[in-house]
Amino acid sequence: MSSRRADIPLALISVAEMARARLLLKRGAPRAFQHYRLEALGHSAPPLPTPPMDESARHDVRVASRAITLPVVRSTCLPTALSLAAVLARRGLECDVVLGVSQMDGFSAHAWIEAGARRFDPSGNIAADYKVIARMRRSVRTTA
Predict the structure, then answer these.
(1) Cα separations in angstroms, 135 against 6, 46, 85, 106
(2) If 0-12 CB within 10 Å is exposed, 13-18 middle and 19+ buried, where does residue 97 land?
């Protein structure tokens, strides 16, 4: 089976997560954050000291990023960040959803995710252009 064919289930899951994130955000951000088990941290909280991601996890994030940035699926940054956080959680990796603001060309806000020292943002926006105003930790559910 080709690698592209093997990526189809993950791409479909990613698109479904994007749809779920959009729906939950329409019902209110607090509801969405609760669904995704995001815990608010201080804006100056340090990023997670997550160990480096293996190639398989990086591949999954690339597949998910490509799927949710297709023109028929594409959305704004917050649903994108929430859906990527869900994909990382499926891999057993913790991440932070980060919110920032910029005043470079007027006011703008942006959301992205970070796992350890890695930043995942399919938009291509430059992190240094945004001042972090909130960091929310996405914890992976542990089973007993």
Answers:
(1) 33, 9, 13, 23
(2) buried
- Average pLDDT per consecutive 10 residues, the chain (144 residues; last block may be shorter): 75 92 92 90 74 76 87 86 88 86 83 82 81 82 47
Residue 97: per-residue pLDDT? 92
Q: Confirm if 28 and 89 have CB atoms less than 8 A apart.
A: no
Residue 89 CB partners (closer than 8 Å, separation 6+): 95, 138, 140, 141
Q: Bridge partners of 96?
A: 114, 137
On whether the CB atoms of residues 37 and 141 are closer than 8 A, the answer is yes
Structure token pair of residue 46? 């340090």
- pLDDT at residue 61, as a whole number: 84
